[in-house]
Amino acid sequence: MALILFIMVFSGALKDVPVLKALDFNNMMGAFGVVKGAEGNFQGVGGVGAKDGFMVAFAQLPLLMLAMGIVELATKYRALLAAKVLFTPILKPLLGIPGAAGLTLVSSLNSSDGGAVMTADLYDRGYLTQDERTIFVGFQFAASGMIVATVTLLAMAPMLVVSPMFIMGILLLMKFVNGNLVRLAVKRRPSSDGENRDERAA
Questions:
Q1: 128 Cα distance to chain centroid
Q2: Which of 26, 83, 190, 191 is deepest in the core (most CB within 10 A)?
Q3: Does the pLDDT of residue 115 top 80, yes or no?
Q4: How far apart are CA 105 and CA 66, in angstroms?
Q5: Residue ranges per domain, the chain?
Q6: Pick from 22, 23, 25, 16: which is nearest to 115 by CA?
Q7: pLDDT the model gives residue 72
Q8: What's the rounded Cα separation, in Å, for the pair 136 and 128?
Q9: Cα–Cα distance between 164 and 152 in angstroms, integer?
Q10: CA-based nearest residue to 30, from 18, 20, 15
Q11: Angstrom distance (rounded) from CA 116 to CA 112
């Protein structure tokens, strides 16, 4: 049950559902306000260099804290263990990664930053080896945050010659293609996993 709830939170399925939209990850993230009389948000516009880079990084802090907090909850309520059982038969043959990455995969489809944070956390907790992390990053890198990107395309719906769902299907297919290209590259070189998953998780 906890796994289903966390999947719904990260998938964007609750984004426009009355009352329940308060549980959607992006809705919980919210948005920065605009300084009165200024353009953009607190970052402003036209920034360059290290200072602008710092502001971009600073803007990611709320997302990092929220994503890590939700992962901690998912771990506490054994959602990651449930994901491991449910998703391993799917993800192991398709990408060569354990099912524990299933929740993170769902998150990465909606938020590239959230997926990145959760992937790093999975590795730190010992759920992913270094090679598995590399493969998973390859999957995420192609068309990152594809759900948000596809929803953005809906504004251009009158000009589209194919349905947004078809576009989303192609993007998802190419994510798996990219992940497996990285998987092939990883297999063709000596393993970089100096220690196994169980040893790091201990």
A1: 15
A2: 83
A3: yes
A4: 17
A5: 2-29+47-201
A6: 25
A7: 78
A8: 9
A9: 10
A10: 15
A11: 6
